[in-house]
Amino acid sequence: MSVISFATSKGGAGKTTACIVLGTTFADQLKVSIIDADPAHRVNRWAEKGPYPKSITVIKCADENRIMDVIEAEQEKSDVVLVDLEGVASKLNSYVFSMSDLVIVPTGDEQQDVEDAILTLKQIKLDSRASRRDIPAKVLFARTKAAVKSRLEKKLNKQMRDNVDCFEAELKTRTAFSSIHNSGGNLDSLPSDVSGVDKAKENAREIAKEIIATFQQAKQEAVA
Ligand SMILES: Nc1ncnc2c1ncn2[C@@H]1O[C@H](COP(=O)(O)OP(=O)(O)O)[C@@H](O)[C@H]1O
Ligand SMILES: [Mg+2]
Predict the structure, then answer these.
(1) In the chain, which residues have pLDDT < 70?
(2) Closest CA to 103 of 19, 187, 221, 183
(3) Is 171 a pocket residue for ligand 1 (Cβ < 6 Å)?
C-alpha cells in the first residue's frame, strides 16, 4: 500500500537505520516490505545477520530498470513498503520518489547535515515538478543527542523546523539503534547487554505514530 522512502545525500545521516528501525516497528502490526535499493546493501546485511519478524519481506533491488516493478509488486502484498536509498541524485532515486507517498529525509542538527537535507528537499521538489505531483517529504532529525543540545544545534534545529515540515520526534542516538546492524532482528531480539532498549522502542513508536498521522492527514486533505 503506502510507499515510504528514505533519502538524503549525506552519508551516515541515518537512512538505513531509520528504515530498519521503523520497518521492524511497523512489523508489530502490519505487513512490511523493505526494498534495499542502495548498492551498498546495508539492509540486506542486517537481514542476513539473524531472524527478523515474519511480517517483513526484504528485497534487494538497486536496478533502475526494475525498481518500479518491484515497488508495485510489494505494494500488492504489504501494508507498507519502505525503500532504503543511496545518498545520490540518480534516476533510480527519482523513480522511487515519484512512487513515494512520503520521503523521509533524515538529518542531524549540524551545519553540513542540514545543508545536505535542504539539497535533498530541493531535488525532491524538482522531481515533483517532473512528475507533476507534489511528492510529500518530511525531515526526520536523526542521530541527534539524547542529552541536551548545544546552542548551535538548537539554533539549526529550530531554523529547519521553522522552514520545512519536520517530524516532532527525533530518532536519537542510541546504542540500541546502532546494535541492530550488528545483531540483526528487531529491538526485542537485541542481546541482553544492550542498554536503553525500552527508551529506543518508545522513540521508534513515537515516529511510527507520526507517520501514520501524516498519512491520515493527507487522506483527509485529499477528501476535503
Ligand atoms: N539513531 C542512531 N543511534 C545510534 N547510531 C546510529 C543511529 N543512526 C545511525 N547510526 C549509526 O550511524 C551509522 C550510519 O548510519 P546509517 O543509517 O547507515 O546512515 P545512512 O544510511 O544515511 O548512510 C551506522 O553505523 C549506524 O549504526
Ligand atoms: Mg544507508
Answers:
(1) none
(2) 19
(3) yes
Q: Supply the angle between the helices 91-98 and 67-77 in degrees, to the nearest 10.
A: 30
Residue from 88, 143, 145, 171 whose mutation best tests the ligand 1 pocket (most atoms within 8 A of CB): 143
**Rounded Cα–Cα distance for residues 222 and 21 (Å):** 29
Ligand 1 atom closest to the Cα of residue 175 is: 4
* Extended strands (E) in the chain: 2-6, 32-36, 56-60, 80-84, 102-107, 137-144, 171-172
Predicted confidence at residue 219, as pLDDT, reads 80
CATH number at residue 139: 3.40.50.300
Residue nearest to atom 26 of ligand 1 (CA): 178
- Ligand found nearest the CA of 179: 1
Domain of 96, in residue numbers:
2-223
Domain count, the chain: 1
How many angstroms does the Cα of residue 150 sit away from the middle of ligand 2? Answer: 26
Measure the CA–CA gap between 39 and 124, rounded to whole angstroms.
20
Q: Which of 95, 155, 91, 123 has the alpha carbon at shortest distance from 8?
A: 123
Which cell goes with 209? Answer: 505514530
**pLDDT for the residue 223:** 81
